[in-house]
Amino acid sequence: MNTILRKTILAPGVKDFLVDAPRIARKRKAGQFIMLRVRQEGERIPLTIADADPEAGWIRLIFQEVGRSTVELGRLEEGDSILDLAGPLGRPTHIEERGTVVCVGGGIGTAPVHPIAKANKEMGNRVISIIGARSADLLIMEEEMAKASDRLLVCTDDGSKGIKGFVTQVLQQLMDEGEPIKEVVAIGPVVMMRAVSEVTRASGIPTVVSLNATMVDGTGMCGGCRVTVDGRSRFVCVDGPEFNGHAVDFGELLQRQRAYTEQERQAMAQDHVCHIGRDQ
Q1: From residue 89, how far is each of 4, 36, 66, 218 by CA, in Å?
Q2: Do 241 and 106 fall within a single domain?
Q3: Rounded Cα distance, 145 and 131, in Å
Q4: In angstroms, rounded to a whole number, what is the distance separating the alpha carbons of residues 35 and 220?
Q5: CATH of the domain at 242
Q6: Over the stretch 84-117, which tens digit does the pLDDT of each residue have?
Q7: Domain that holds residue 82
Q8: Tens of pLDDT along 202-236?
Q9: Would the pTM count as exceeding 0.85?
Q10: Do 14 and 109 fall within a single domain?
Q11: DSSP secondary structure string for all residues of 122-169
Q12: Residue 24 domain-assigned (yes or no)
């Protein structure tokens, strides 16, 4: 159980694992996540399930190495096992027949938006997906998103692939062209999700965002993933991770995300020293 069946590098610092987790693979639905721990003394971290195969018994986890725990996870190889793996957690994405749904993935956010696009297409909705990154080498899952969409639009900040510009500009263009959008789903950096929500606010297009607040246990016990939505406190792990983008207090979320920046920097520095020591 929890054995890494396949490891792939998708982009600099972005790893793709197929993990043997048959019970989770059978139960998981679009939008849900798992909590994992690499080692006994490590922290628990949430990762969205990017894909799964109930018959083969694997789930797909795609993550970016941004802190000590994800760096440690990224060092695991095929055949290694993840110590703890709990899930599926969180509320599944609400999927129904709507018409045209636009799925927006920014950077690593393309991974969690993929199962949502796939589920919407299977429901019979027309799916237009917009994926973006700073440059072509950081784009991920283009082939998978193309299969999960009726139309795929790719953009990069520097114009090295696809449309030059931001995902918000591409979305605005779709709206200006009169595309009958019934819902927008946006997943990526907080600033991107906030920007997408502002683009759709004036038109009143329902907009769903998947939040990546700091999480400790994933069960609602610790309160670490608290966010304010429509003026009320909500827990991302049990009330989300998806919320109405027009109601999220993104300013507060950004502040809470920065709360442990110094501790993370110290942990990374300590890990670097320990890792160098092991290699000598």
Answers
A1: 20, 11, 22, 7
A2: yes
A3: 8
A4: 13
A5: 3.40.50.80
A6: 999 999 999 999 999 999 999 999 999 999 999 9
A7: 4-89
A8: 999 999 999 987 787 777 777 788 999 999 999 99
A9: yes
A10: no
A11: HHT-EEEEEEEESSGGG---HHHHHHT-SEEEEEETTSSSSEES-HHH
A12: yes
